Amino acid sequence: MQWVTPSGFPVANRYRKSNPTRVRLPFLGSSLTISDGYLDEPRKKKVLNSAVANVTHSMDSSHLTLSVNAAVVNGITNIMVIHDCFGAMAPDVWPFAGLRRGLLAWMYHDYNPLIQLGGRKAPPPPDPDFEILAVCESQYFDR
């Protein structure tokens, strides 16, 4: 399972089975099994169980990357990020928030993760009551 995020970063949800090797320890006759490289065979359950979290994290990461790059282009250079949280100097808080809202809205407007993952041939029909670009105007979307 692999995809490219809106920021252009390639992601591979690749979990492979390990190549186990038995190691005998010289004391007390102990032995243990360690991994000595990987096989080409996927760990199917792990790939499936981690897919949603990894897609979500990659989209958060893409939003962070696009937001910081746009902020720097706009002269906002004192930025702190932790996972999916942003911080800026007091005079930059509102302009930076506006940039982030706009980028988030356009990111999902132009990029459908379901299509990128090959889960659907066409996007699901839009909800007539939901307008993704309205996020640009919302003051409360990221509170």
Description:
A hairpin with a 5-residue loop joins strand 1 (2-4) and strand 2. The protein is elongated. The chain is built from 3 helices and 6 strands, in the order ββββαββαα. The protein is an alpha+beta fold.
Write the layout of secondary structure elements.
Elements: E1 2-4, E2 10-12, E3 16-24, E4 31-42, H1 44-73, E5 79-82, E6 85-88, H2 93-110, H3 113-116
Helix pairs in contact: 1-2
Structural class: alpha+beta
Coarse morphology: elongated
Q: DSSP helix count?
A: 3
Largest beta sheet, briefly?
2 strands, antiparallel
Beta-strand content estimate = 15-25%
Count all strands and give the number. 6
* Radius of gyration from CA coordinates: 21 Å
Outline of this structure?
With 143 residues, this protein is α+β, with helices and mostly antiparallel strands. The chain has one domain (2-137).
